[in-house]
Design a protein that fits this description.
Layout (H helix, E strand, L loop, with lengths): L1 E5 L3 H13 L4 E6 L11 H5 L14 H6 L4 E4 L1 E7 L4 E6 L4 E5 L2 E4 L3 E3 L12 E3 L3 H14 L3 E5 L3 H12 L3 E6 L8 H13 L4 E3 L5 E5 L2 E6 L2 E5 L1 E4 L3 E3 L2 H5 L23 E3 L6 E2 L6 E2 L4 H15 L13 E5 L2 E7 L2 H6 L4 E9 L10 E9 L5 E8 L8 H8 L4 H5 L15 H10 L3
Parallel strand pairs: 1-2, 1-7, 2-3, 7-18, 9-16, 10-11, 10-16, 11-12
Antiparallel strand pairs: 4-5, 5-6, 8-17, 13-14, 14-15, 19-20, 21-22, 22-25, 23-24, 24-25
Helix pairs in contact: 1-8
The chain binds flavin-adenine dinucleotide (FAD).
Length: 444
Amino acid sequence: MDFLVIGGDAAGMSAASRAKRNNPDMNVTVLEQTTDVSYSACGMPYNIADPDRTIDDLVVRQAQVFRDKQGIHLLTGCRAESIDPAAKAVQAVDHSGKKKTFHYDKLLIATGASPIMPPIAGVDLEGVLPLKRLSDGRHIREFIRRNEVKSAVLAGMGYIGLEMSESLKERGIDVVGVTRGFMSNYDEKIGDVVRQTLAAHEVPLYADHAVEKIEKDGGKLAVTCGGETLEADMVLMGVGVRPNSEIAADAGIALGTKNAISVDRRTETSIPGIFSAGDCADAYHVVTGEKVWVPLALYANRAGWTAADNICGKHSEIPGIAGSAVFKVFELEVGRTGLSVKEAEAAGFDPAAVTIEARSRAHAHPGSTSIWVHMVGDRKSGRLLGAQMVGKEGVAHRIKAPTVALHAQMTVRDFSQTDLAYAPPFSPVWDPMLTAANQLIKKL
Ligand SMILES: Cc1cc2nc3c(=O)[nH]c(=O)nc-3n(C[C@H](O)[C@H](O)[C@H](O)COP(=O)(O)OP(=O)(O)OC[C@H]3O[C@@H](n4cnc5c(N)ncnc54)[C@H](O)[C@@H]3O)c2cc1C
């Protein structure tokens, strides 16, 4: 059996490794267009914050280890250009420009996502940089060092922009955020707490603005937004990503939501024998059962495993995605899972919501700080639909409890009765989530 994988990061290498573990005799080949495989993109903001680190710290497993220890035929610098499903073949080109054909019995497309570079004047100027691949992180580190960057505009303040605001501030760089909507998927109070923290750390925010053009003005970049011109040494483009699905669409594979590759619960595409996993593919939402596109790391790894299991002849279905995400911005932890009120309405639920402020530790325990919890439930069924949280401690791990509850399709009442562990350094006896659930029950 020849198993061919296009893309050698989270989804692709998880699938390749799992297939080899399941079936050591299988021929597993991976085509990766860059020289980097199996790295933690998620660690890049923290890596860039520290001038003494090297970006290669983020490589989880070197290409040679996959080859020598796992017997995976891993080709770096090799870009897949087209798929011929009838011939079960992939055309590729290697780093020297040589064309090659690879035949497969089963194929996995794990091509990930690419940063969106908006079609504005100056987007291709030197110093206007995206942060997606490891090579982008390398480039940003090098650009900061070589140009002694003192100021940056962050175009887009999603979680990458927010993480980078902290990272660049740590390097002594002044940052300004310019963003169309600010935390629009979050409850207003949670967004306000983050805004206040940005202000406290002297990160001006041009919310409801977009970068309109970028010009070179002497040694600096001049960024126009909402009639103002902001000067900076560097512009970080973080306005979002799009799935790398062209190669699949050209081969006649159906695309779904947001142009991601449409897959079933076994991660198989519309063409039997061709699977897709990770940021290039869509997924089922565990609350709505509908297709969504949520490009995040754990799901990419999980979907890679599911694809490999099915390719190895098992029947494996992935339950789906809850849209759980956490990030850190300065001293704050921010987390969410499931649906916001807006998303719940759009999905046909009749949502009720509460936002409460509670303490991170027991009443008399020193060091306690505020945690804000926003919780959404459905009036018709009583189901828990989503939760969001922000605070200085205890958020990132706490958000995992409602995530599990969403997977289990629990009601808010059931969730309010869960036996969450308590000790004074970690929570009040009624955990903030239980308090939010008890408040929400009154509105359902
Ligand atoms: C700065 C940053 C921070 C992040 N933080 C978090 C976080 O905290 N938590 C979280 O859950 N997620 C985070 N993510 C998202 C996470 O990194 C992605 O969800 C994950 O990397 C997706 O893995 P993937 O394998 O699907 O795609 P990718 O990592 O994009 O890998 C796809 C690979 O395919 C290769 N490829 C593409 N086309 C071809 C082709 N035609 N031929 C050969 N090779 C090809 C690419 O070069 C790439 O190496 C972050 C991302 C970034 C950029």
